[in-house]
Amino acid sequence: MVQFIQKKVSCEDALDLPKPACPQKPVVLVVAVALVDSDGRILLAQRPEGKSMAGLWEFPGGKVEKDETPEFALMRELEEELDIQTRPCCFAPAGFVSHGYDDFHLLMPLYICRVWRGTPMAKEHKALKWVRAHDLYGIDMPEADKPLIPFLEEAL
């Protein structure tokens, strides 16, 4: 089996290399949100002990279930995880990430939400915190979340 090893090369240089083989791993669709408060800060949630990537800070959200749109999955996840009410019309697309982990490939659209009802509570996370977009670079986050930071800096 030929395995593609991802290296940081320019697109021009990549065209001179042999065509890579597609990694054979499941694709997982996860949706995330940058909840933005009236001060322009973004809510981060800390992954709990016992889960993969425990202790890392992430954008709230979760897996999209079968026959569920990303927006409806996000509405459901925010109620389950943070005890807040939202609606699909409250979400503005901000960007997405396509990231290969060792055992799966993550596809994650990110939305921005500025309107919700309730006060976010850490029902499933270890902790919550509000941060400014430019401060995200110094926070220990999953690798897939990091490429979303420039989208948020530009949008906010």
State the gist of this model.
It is built from 3 helices and 7 strands; from the N terminus they run αββββαβββα.
Structure characterization notes:
It is a single chain. The chain has one domain: Nucleoside Triphosphate Pyrophosphohydrolase (Alpha-Beta Complex), CATH 3.90.79. A hairpin with a 4-residue loop joins strand 5 and strand 6 (105-113). It contains 3 helices and 7 strands, in the order αββββαβββα. The model is unreliable at 1-5 (pLDDT under 50). The protein is of the alpha+beta class. The longest helix has 13 residues, at 70-82. The strands form 2 sheets. It has a 4-stranded mixed beta sheet with strand order 4-1-6-5, with helices on both faces.
Give the tags.
about 160 residues; alpha+beta; Nucleoside Triphosphate Pyrophosphohydrolase; four-stranded mixed beta sheet; three-stranded antiparallel beta sheet; 3 helices; about 30% strand; globular; disordered N terminus
Helix content: 10-25%
Mean pLDDT: 91
CATH topology: Nucleoside Triphosphate Pyrophosphohydrolase
What is the level 1 CATH name?
Answer: Alpha Beta
Principal-axes geometry comes out as globular
Computed over alpha carbons, the radius of gyration is 17 Å
Q: What CATH architecture do you see?
A: Alpha-Beta Complex
Overall structural class, as computed from helix and strand content, comes to: alpha+beta
